[in-house]
User: Fold this.
Amino acid sequence: MVFFSVIIPTYNRASLLKRCLQSVVSCPFPDFEILVSDNASPDHTQEVLQSFNDPRLRFWRNETNLGAVKNQLKLLQEAQGEWIFFLTDDDFLMPGAIERLYAVLADHPEIGIVTSSVQNLDEQGSNAGVTQYQSGTHVYAPGLAALSALVLTAHLLSRVTIRRAWMNIDGFEKHMGSLYSQMFLVGAILKEHPGLYLDESLINHTVGNETFWEYHPDFMVGANIAMIGDLLPGAEWRTERRTLCDQIIAEVIVHHMPLTLSVSISNWITHQQHLWRVREVRHSKIYWLGLLKFVIKAALRRIRSKFVRQ
Assistant:
């Protein structure tokens, strides 16, 4: 068994995939495999893959496009490493990332997952800032501490690292419709095992580039809340379940509302209508208070803008 499986789902991003793979094969760490699943790309992805002569690399092309998450599932089923490291085709490793991760895991044999901060780059490769999900490197005890600190950080797939023997692949498959079923893998481990947040960037993450999947009009809020309900069922997990649902709803206020309003008012209204279909949103004080504050601020901005134009 190899120590790491670096799994890379790819579709129609041949040039970015080349950059991604170059960052991985250049790593001198010997004990890992690289798996790439080409989701029936129409471009020259196969030529890029065939140009790499590395015994650690194994790749294939799906006969038809399975969808992004089913493609991830296929990689999880094929992986043989003790640890699985997710890396998407438009991202690439920081120098020394694998060696650094190995050292962290050697120092903390009790943990089941690792996430980290992220260095963001725009399409031209310019620095777009660092996303820091926590302040400082920290090991979180299983249960509420780990779940509330780490589950939602896993919505960004690249750099999530999980112990393969502890992953709940059935839960991942059940919640593929959420587009973020890796959060189920992370949460299932953190119910019983510690997790670690590394306040260092292991990857360069590309932002603002073309994507090849569609979001539900509620930005998967309903599906993600349903996933949390399945992950943390019953009275035993009530506090943890409420905490994660509140985090998902808070994300609506901070990110989804401004994004939909930037398209149009009608788009924003449609977004709210879809959110209202989710029981936990309708009953959430966080949502209604956030909605009120958002509407007031948006109205004040429009008023100020009108006076400035005059």
User: Anything to note?
Assistant: The mean pLDDT is 94. Residues 153 and 191 are 16 Å apart (CA to CA). The longest helix spans residues 238-263.
